[in-house]
Amino acid sequence: MQFFFDFYFEVISFFASVFFYVQKRNKIPLYFIPFLFTTVTVELIGGWCLSNAISNYALFNVFTTCEFLFYSFFFYMHFERAIFRKMVLFFIPVFILSVVLNMLLGQGWNKTFNTYTFLSGSFFIVIFCCCYFYESVLPENIDVQLGREPFFWIASGLLIFYLGSVIINALFEYLRSNDLQEQGIRIYGFINHSLNVILYSSFCVAFYLCPNNRKTSSSPS
């Protein structure tokens, strides 16, 4: 099996989540451990299927759905305003229903990659990122150093990844046109893999910046 360079960043981010959780006992890397382990496992299985001429659409369609739900949960945990948390709670059941309908009545679950699901989920993640940055610049948070906040890096990585993914997927058919077919597909792949590198690198920075919650014992004086 042959993997693109971004796969190794996924592996690095998984080990970083384990390492920094052991070092700091912070809940952010703890939550990411099973998620990133699943991400790496899905990539391995998907690569194996591809090398054996087996369809992996169902695998990635299910995983993409779980991915959006995981990120939504994280935004719900970090939003301060009730209206933004309610927005997440509204999105989750609507998104799940749209995924089921798309699989049953639309693009199917194993015929092709569910682009409708991906685009709708990406749109909402971008909205959630904008809501987070809006909260970050409110007067009560004016003294917060965003560059030192772990979730700032997670939200920044997600914003760049999903905004870039929406744009490049919107241009996919144009890049596949006869005039640009070979070069266009190469450009699409390079940008897509580069966005993955940015995303998983931002996770690593976030894990590094997590505060240390490990209890330290003080010796009696």
Radius of gyration, whole Å: 19 Å
Count of helical regions: 8
SS-derived structural category: mainly alpha
Number of domains: 1
**Series of secondary-structure elements, N-terminal to C-terminal:** HHHHHHHH
Ranges where pLDDT stays below 50 over 5 or more residues in a row are: 217-221
Shape: globular
**Separation of the first and last Cα atoms:** 59 Å
Helix content: over 70%
Largest sheet: none
Give the number of DSSP strands: 0
**Roughly what fraction of the amino acids lie in strands?**
under 5%
Mean pLDDT: 88
Structure explained in plain terms:
The chain has 221 residues and is an all-alpha fold. It has one domain. It contains 8 helices and no strands. The longest helix is centred in the last third of the chain and has 29 residues, at 181-209. The chain starts with a helix and ends in a 12-residue tail after the last helix.
